[in-house]
Write a structure and sequence with these properties.
Elements lengths: L15 E2 L1 H6 L4 E7 L5 E3 L10 E6 L2 H13 L7 E5 L3 H13 L3 E5 L3 H14 L4 E4 L9 E6 L23 E6 L8 H8 L3 E4 H4 L6 H4 L13 H11 L10 E3 L2 E3 L16 E2 L2 H16 L2
């Protein structure tokens, strides 16, 4: 799973793009695949031994996840709605194009760098001419917004400012607010929206059509092809690790490792609780991951 700022960069880094990634111009999920003896490509988790040929396959689940979340959790079908969208990065571009494709009536895009918002607006005017598209906040004479959608990273850090300039747009003119940030669950924008009486939805509740928020925060590697003894080494780490501190980003789960390493072999969802590694153990696990990667 990829997030800011990797979604656009991954377009040129993966071996194959799924139609979803090509259509929406961003990658938020990468599936690592191997080629079997019949020449078919399958997820690495399906192999008992390491395949000779590997590839990375990029997907985008953000687009469908956004509209699904709005429909199921806010009761909003998007078609014919007026939307104020904050952000024109990878997530913002996907959201804007998906909303336009779904038939939003009016779309206002606000971004710190106006040229990025203008580029998206130009693409929407070309591909979806029926949509009323504008860059910047709606003026005082415009109708109320059915939805304010935050696609920026503002809200991830405790001291972040709100992504919305309340002097330019008052939340009492919005029917609903959706924040794509899934942690923390209550961002400054959502807190202000609730105070203004808006119907609110954090991405943590809907999770953009993917697995649970708890699972997304951990890269899960069910199988590594390691030299004898290294699997035992991982199991030893698991047995010796302490229970996790709240919010710790370093975990081991199932058979193998979970760290912030860039090496990812396969993904799966598991239910057992995570355990925390010390910094020394993390370094050792990273070395094991590098060994596994070199075997491919």
């Amino acid at each position: 799973n990829l997030t800011v700022p990797h979604k656009l960069l991954a377009l040129d880094m993966v071996d194959v793009l799924d139609e979803s990634a090509s259509e929406w111009g961003a990658v938020n999920t990468i599936l690592f695949e191997g080629q079997d003896d019949n020449g078919d490509w399958r997820a690495l988790r399906d192999f008992e031994t390491a395949p000779h040929q590997l590839r990375s396959h990029g997907y985008n689940t953000d687009a469908d996840g956004i509209t699904q979340s709005l429909r199921e959790d806010l009761g909003m079908e998007v078609r014919g709605e007026n939307v104020l969208l904050l952000g024109a990065g990878g997530a913002g571009r996907v959201a804007a194009l998906k909303l336009a494709a779904t038939g939003v009536r009016q779309l206002h895009i606000v971004n710190r760098t106006a040229s990025k918002a203008e580029a998206i607006a130009h693409e929407i005017r070309t591909r979806f001419p029926a949509v009323e598209i504008a860059v910047g906040y709606p003026d005082a004479t415009d109708t109320e917004m059915d939805l304010v959608l935050n696609c920026t990273s503002l809200g991830l850090a405790p001291d972040d400012v709100m992504p919305l300039n309340i002097d330019s747009f008052s939340l009492d003119k919005a029917r609903a607010v959706y924040d794509m940030i899934y942690q923390p669950a209550e961002t400054p924008l959502l807190a202000a929206a609730r105070a203004a009486g808006c119907h609110c939805l954090p991405a943590a509740s809907a999770d953009n059509g993917r697995t649970s928020r708890r699972s997304r925060r951990r890269l899960l590697l069910p199988r590594l092809w390691l030299a004898p003894g290294r699997r035992g080494f991982i199991e030893g780490l698991m047995a010796s690790a302490e229970p996790p501190a709240k919010g710790s980003p370093f975990f081991v789960d199932g058979e193998c490792s979970v760290t912030n390493s860039a090496v990812v072999v396969c993904l799966r969802r598991v239910e057992q609780p995570p355990i925390e590694l010390t910094q020394t153990q993390i370094g050792a696990v990273n070395g094991t991951l590098a060994e596994a990667a070199s075997s491919f």
